Please model this.
Amino acid sequence: MADTQFDLVVIGSGPGGYVAAIRAAQLGLRTACVEMRKTLGGTCLNIGCIPSKALLTASEKYEEAKHSLASFGVKVAGVELDLPTMMKHKDGVVAANVGGVEFLFKKNKVTRFIGKGSIEAAGVVKVTKEDGSAETVTTKNILIATGSDVMPLPGVAIDEKKIVSSTGALDLDKVPGRLVVIGGGVIGLELGSVWQRLGAQVTVVEFLDRILPGMDAEVSKQSQRILGKQGLAFKLGTKVTSATVKGETVTLTVEPAKGGSAETLEADIVLVAIGRRPYTAGLGLDTVGVALDNRGRVVTDHHFRTNVPGIWAIGDVIAGPMLAHKAEEEGVVAAEVMAGQSGHINYDAIPGVVYTWPEIASVGKTEEQLKEAGIAYKVGKFPFTANGRARAMQVTEGFVKVLADAKTDKLLGAHIIGANAGDMIEELGLAIEFGASSEDVARTSHAHPTLTEAIKEACLAVDGRPIHI
Ligand code: FAD
Ligand code: NAI
Model:
């Protein structure tokens, strides 16, 4: 019979849960993880980060072969889309990653339970299998890492065929002629880009008067301009009030967000991407009295303890940005605190990346946040048009923007739109984590010729002394 007595039972095996389980096992805790999905890895590995990046990369290659290689003197003829092979690539990447977590669980002796976990009482988790049978495990600690689920939109029922969530949009069997994306956030822009590159006419309908609302306003304005040039159409300040499916066509009724006359939009596929909400259904939280906030998120202290002793929570199910690496950091801290160590997360040093082309990356504060907080700051900016490597790579769109404290020069935020922005932002995240000033980064040698020289130049620009512009 399987072991049913643990130090820690993690419910959910996403990047928060599986990383917490491995870290706890490394620290000597007898650890189990309950996952209701057949494969491990949660939203991120199965239907989120990983498959979306597989399709983003593949569609970028298609786009490149079709439109960009010729200007490098590389002639390619007869470029064709083979969508089934592209999907096979995506499925293969997912399989390798979820299999990787299974391997890591075995290596670290994390016991895996397949089934839906519910909390019977502090220290008691019931696992209900698909066939209805159940078993109970007892544990010193329970970690809720159940993640999030698609936010529904009233009047627009998701059927994952004609009206899809991100999950359906990762699995379309043909390129839609017309795709309407509801929500100009991260999912809308990433998956909208994938299908636009593959040939769909994409219209993004956004409630607010800007896309990427959480990002620095200048960066989101520039992203809209660049994505618009690529062919994405935007209907801002617009809300969708209903959707009807007739045959192959979906008709959406839209109207100005501030009120006004309605119009209709027709689409072959509609993607609903208006955010995600914490997933706590069937967990038994009300039975044990775990407190939720007004948005349904589990409330924790800074060490991820809930109000019920022995029950902890991390990741998308609690407050904060819904990001895989944020969930991972929280999982590590929770496990370390359970094992008697201390832990801390600097949320200002957690980067966010939108994997469009070019990428959009950000860490720390935006200009709008600094203004609101009344913090005096200086801005340093450098465009990729003035970077030699960017010219060589034909990726001159975008810029690096850094924000530093006006008095102390401490770096407070950094925003990059440009090729490889997602990799480049790490340097500035590290600088913020170490409490560096813009001068510290400006005086650090950056290899030539690299795109990262634009970071050094932006930091020099804080003091009004960039060299190459
Ligand atoms: P999840 O990954 O959601 O995992 C929770 C797991 O818990 C799930 O497997 C679920 O089945 C399981 N579960 C829930 N309830 C129970 C229960 N009662 N019993 C047993 N199991 C249960 N983030 C990034 O940082 N970078 C990206 O590029 C990125 N791309 C994304 C693309 C898409 C299309 C989507 C949808 C999300 C993306 N995200 C990305 C967000 C990222 O996936 C989440 O922030 C991350 O997965 C959260 O991790 P988590 O461990 O909190 O929860
Ligand atoms: P989001 O919060 O990024 O964007 C949702 C957008 O929809 C916002 O711009 C919002 O103003 C808009 N919106 C809300 N209600 C609307 C309505 N009724 N009509 C029209 N527009 C409306 O959420 P999204 O894109 O669904 O992603 C969910 C989460 O997944 C995000 O929190 C994100 O962090 C995570 N994610 C992260 C990725 C990454 O890190 N690269 C990639 C994809 C998702």
